[in-house]
Amino acid sequence: MKFPQPQTLKQISDLINAEFVGEPDFKILGINEIHVVEHGDIVFVDHPKYYDKALESKASVVLINKEVDCPEGKALLVSEDPFSDFNKITAHFSPFETSHQSLSNSAEIGENTIIQPNVFIGNNVKIGDNCLIHSNVSIYDGVEIGNNVQIHAGTVLGADAFYYKNRPTYHDKLLSGGSIRISDNVEIGALCSIDKGVSGITSIGEGTKIDNQVQVGHDTIIGKKCLIASQTGIAGCVVIEDEVTIWGQVGIASGLTIGKRVVILAQSGISKDLKPDTTYFGTPADDIRKKYRELGYISRIPEIIQKLKNL
Prior knowledge:
Blueprint: E1 2-8, H1 9-16, E2 19-21, E3 27-31, E4 41-45, H2 51-55, E5 61-64, E6 75-78, H3 82-93, E7 108-109, E8 114-115, E9 120-121, E10 126-127, E11 132-133, E12 138-139, E13 144-145, E14 150-151, E15 156-159, E16 164-166, E17 171-173, E18 179-182, E19 187-188, E20 193-195, E21 201-204, E22 209-210, E23 215-216, E24 221-222, E25 227-228, E26 233-234, E27 239-240, E28 245-246, E29 251-252, E30 257-258, E31 263-264, E32 269-270, E33 279-281, E34 286-287, H4 288-299, H5 301-309
EC number: 2.3.1.191
Domain UDP-3-O-[3-hydroxymyristoyl] glucosamine N-acyltransferase non-repeat region: 25-91
Keywords: Acyltransferase, Lipid A biosynthesis, Lipid biosynthesis, Lipid metabolism, Repeat, Transferase
């Protein structure tokens, strides 16, 4: 998430009431999570296990809960609770805006685009030409939709990330300040949920088709010309490369990469990265040839047991 205009280290320090290490006028351009952080960004870390990863990342500023040696060319913000202070920054630069009408005055709707009754379109939404948005679709603030996109009834674009910190007495929510970008010629089925990024962008590539009742988690990147069938659940921060086919009721764990032209058969559970040009099946999923051999061996177990009894 980029700030509307650059901030200084001192300005952000004052905003969250934190100590800083670095020049007061050190320039900051935005905030981001570790997997999408860029030069000029703040990244937060609150566990020693991840200190090195944050300090060695592309981030220019590390929001951290302990004063450590500051890498050359970077700055630190030292906070008792980086998680909460990251939320303060998000809330300040990306505050929730109340809507008072179904179609925001700040929304941009392209030529020949049809908006059916009872659609909600939030602030600063951009929708391209020749789109068809069916009834009861909800499009939250800041979503960008390309040309020739069709979205079916009941779908929600831009809900918050499912991202919580486990406190001793409650689950503390990480605020979502990112957005969604949908490219040209995408079709999204009925009753789908596509969450916006925590600080980055959840994106769906050109020509991808998504069936009904599919969940796409925060900051996930779906490539071009993919097919995703009904009741698939994709966790946050997943990368699905081009021309991937995912059949019904597949579950994909967070942070994984699905290679180009992968096919995942129905009801598979994905817990590791998948290599390109391979068909996978099962839970945990594996190369279909290996999995079918395993199933063949399993089917012979009663026969083997009976032979052992007859010895």
